[in-house]
């Protein structure tokens, strides 16, 4: 008797969208990617927290200074840390399940959680890139290269704000973007905005990867020290790989079953943010190891000089000065 009543209740429930032919909606124990999503988020957050702690410890207690780029990175880390709780809530109302396994109509809260995540992602990535570019400014004290870095910073700020807060201008009225009960009004093509943002992220990541080579190539120092400095600064652009993959996933994801298909994109997005933060923290690795585990570093000086320059309170112009060693 109980099974009959349960079966009748299931038949009375309608999914957010009709299931594909040959598939029956499952409202009791549907397949879900929620657990994988939460585990991925927790692992990556733990990893970036470790490196962020390493950087803050090194800056505060070893190098004895905390600079603008450090505060920018702290803000980026804290903002994305807030996003850890967003999928934890969103999975309870359907994120990670097929649309036809979610009792309809779609809860507008699900879309609001998506908006919050996208906004936190965009601002966090922006602050991380500004942190890296602020570090670059300490290597280029004047001339066109410095102007170019400022221009790049402006570009990052403008496109990040436009794509992170596009929900504010995407629809008229604004509430139509997350309130599916509003029938009137109009919305712009959000997919084009998303592709534009992903493409700009990929392009700026590529610039961050090659920019250190451009302004350190003629550095008046030994080849070993020059290469060491390049390696230190180019790590900030390694997130380029994750951004390329995310752009590709965004371009091929055409299924309307967004609560399920968004999973790979969200994972790649999460990896992108955490890798960016980790890469930005790598410059603190050498001073930390030399202080606490000098046997790991041996007697190598190339990258050590580069690290000393990265963390030096005053950095000389790359046109006229040589990279200082830790003994200067």
UniProtKB/TrEMBL annotation:
Keywords: Membrane, Transmembrane, Transmembrane helix. It comes from the Eukaryota. Residues 54-290 form the Rhodopsin domain. It is a multi-pass membrane protein. It is found in: Membrane. Its main location: membrane. It holds the Pfam family Fung_rhodopsin. The chain crosses the membrane at residues 36-58, 70-90, 110-137, 149-170, 190-217, 229-251, 263-285. GO terms for cellular component: membrane. Belongs to the SAT4 family. PANTHER family: INTEGRAL MEMBRANE PROTEIN (PTHR33048:SF124), PTH11-LIKE INTEGRAL MEMBRANE PROTEIN (AFU_ORTHOLOGUE AFUA_5G11245) (PTHR33048). This is Rhodopsin domain-containing protein. It comes from Periconia macrospinosa.
């Amino acid at each position: 008797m109980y099974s009959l009543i349960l079966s009748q209740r299931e038949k009375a429930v309608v999914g957010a969208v009709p299931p594909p032919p040959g598939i029956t909606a499952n409202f009791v124990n549907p397949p879900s990617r929620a657990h994988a999503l939460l585990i991925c988020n927790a692992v990556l957050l733990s990893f970036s927290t470790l490196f962020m702690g390493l950087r803050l410890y090194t800056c505060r207690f070893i190098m004895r200074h905390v600079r603008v780029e450090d505060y920018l990175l702290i803000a980026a880390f804290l903002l994305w840390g807030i996003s850890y709780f967003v999928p934890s809530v969103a999975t309870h109302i359907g994120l990670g399940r097929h649309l036809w396994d979610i009792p309809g109509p779609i809860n507008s809260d699900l879309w609001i959680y998506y908006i919050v995540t996208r906004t936190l992602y965009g601002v966090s990535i922006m602050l991380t890139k500004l942190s890296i570019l602020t570090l670059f400014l300490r290597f280029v004290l004047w001339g066109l290269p410095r102007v170019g870095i400022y221009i790049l910073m402006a570009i990052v700020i403008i496109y990040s704000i436009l794509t992170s807060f596009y929900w504010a201008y995407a629809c008229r009225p604004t509430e139509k973007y997350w309130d599916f009960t509003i029938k009137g009004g109009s919305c712009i093509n959000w997919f084009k905005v998303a592709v534009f943002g992903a493409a700009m992220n990929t392009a700026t990541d590529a610039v961050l990867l090659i920019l250190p080579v451009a302004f350190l190539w003629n550095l008046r120092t030994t080849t070993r020290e020059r290469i060491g400095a390049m390696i230190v600064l180019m790590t900030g652009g390694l997130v380029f790989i994750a951004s390329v993959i995310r752009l590709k996933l965004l371009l091929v994801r055409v299924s309307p079953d967004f609560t399920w298909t968004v999973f790979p994109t969200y994972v790649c997005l999460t990896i992108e943010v955490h890798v960016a933060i980790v890469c930005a923290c790598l410059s603190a690795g050498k001073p930390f190891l030399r202080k606490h585990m000098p046997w790991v570093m041996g007697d190598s000086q190339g990258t050590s000089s580069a690290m000393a320059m990265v963390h030096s309170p005053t950095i000389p112009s790359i046109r006229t000065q040589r990279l200082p060693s830790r003994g200067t």
